[in-house]
Amino acid sequence: MAGFSAPKDSAVEGGKVCFGAYPLLLCIVSVLGCGGGGGSDVVTGEVKFPDAGSWDFWGEGGLGKDDTVSDARVVLDGAGLQDGVTGDQGSVDQGSVDAWELVTVDLQELADLGHGDQWGQDQVADAGDGLDGAWDLGDLVGPGDQAEEVDVDWPDSGEEDLSAQEPYVTIKTDNNKGVVGKAISFYGSSNCVPGKLTFTADELYVLGSKQVSTSSYDYQYVFNTPGIERTISVKVVGESGCEATSEVKITIQGAFLVDSQSKTDSNGNGFTVRRVRFPTADLEHDLVVTGSGSAKTVQNMALPVVGARGAVNGGYFASGQGPVSYAKGQLGYESPSGNVKGPRGCLWYDKEERTAGIGVSMGRNFLGGGTWGPGLFPEASDVVCAGPILVSGGQNVFWQQYELEDFGTSGISPSSPLPRSAICILDDGSIMVLAAQNDTVKARGFTLPELADYMISQGCVEALNLDGGGSSAFWASSPGAGYWPGTEDRAVYTAVVCK
Could you tell me the pTM of the whole model? Predict the structure, then answer.
């Protein structure tokens, strides 16, 4: 929890909160006496928890279980998602907090405690103004502590509980992902100011420097080279001679890309792989699974999607009967379930979290009697199922998935070079879709084991086979705009669109 914590076995006496036998002098006024066992009440008190972060936990051992706060003036400025607080009369893990009002705390200021701060087993005695070296990096303060006559100021302690008495600098970035060619913001704080910040990539390349005169900073940089788990470090050197360093790991994804490659199949015949790479960290782009109650060409599936840049066909279907693979999309489509086969390989995508995964599923639960339950991907905005899964954990798993997903009688001809479509998650978290085909001769392309190997060679760590053969088709608006429907231009029921 961020802020003052009244442990489960504590009580209140004459303005003191008792940690076992050790009182902590706070600006809390109470009419209660120290009592034993079970919990504590704080009445007519003043407690301030500013900027509580989204992962500050309130629970057993802290203010929460068996504790109540009534008619207290309490502030939870910025209380986060996991604080269990709802409105002005919210509950806190089996306890309750009522009548919160904005207050000022005289003796105890817990400003900007960040998410991840923990209170554990440390001693703070006669600390006076500040911590006087009582805290070191990683120390925890909370239930079981000894504390008396404390006048403590913990500004901007942050998620690593850094003591204000030691030089420190922090560095963070949103989601720890970025995209080539677009500015990435690094931000943090330091108590070694005024001073100079120097930013370095992978312990080799100096990105730049910045003079700072306040405790917080923001620094932007545009990367021109993609990379996975790159180490970005910041070093601060203060005018007083203090120094500190910190680092963060960040993955830089390649830019949105539509391109093609010429390939030769196992019989020596040429074909083309056309593909789209969608960087999930780029909020200007997105992935959409779309579908129709009646069969349409891939081009006609893609054109209504605003901003569509590239598209391939989706899952399997039975001619005249509709889809036999589950799919749903953020634009409102969800495939009927009556003919769905499975369980089969599926890719899910979460538009809000910008993440994706591949696994085996029916898509929906069959409830019996011809009734289907809700979809099995409630958090996903878009799902496309087909199969088999080609790659898992960076390894070719085609043959084992071919058996597991029961494709033995499916007619997908795994060992024949044919047109193929696929989708994968790259090692940097981007998503790639592709169609591999010859524009005039159908019997050219990858075998399915070869397709799995190709996906691995392109950096795919998870990959899924989509419907192929005469269903394989690729559409692009730019660059290299065109429509490549293979030899049949077959109408399909679902498509995967990158925009």
Answer: 0.68
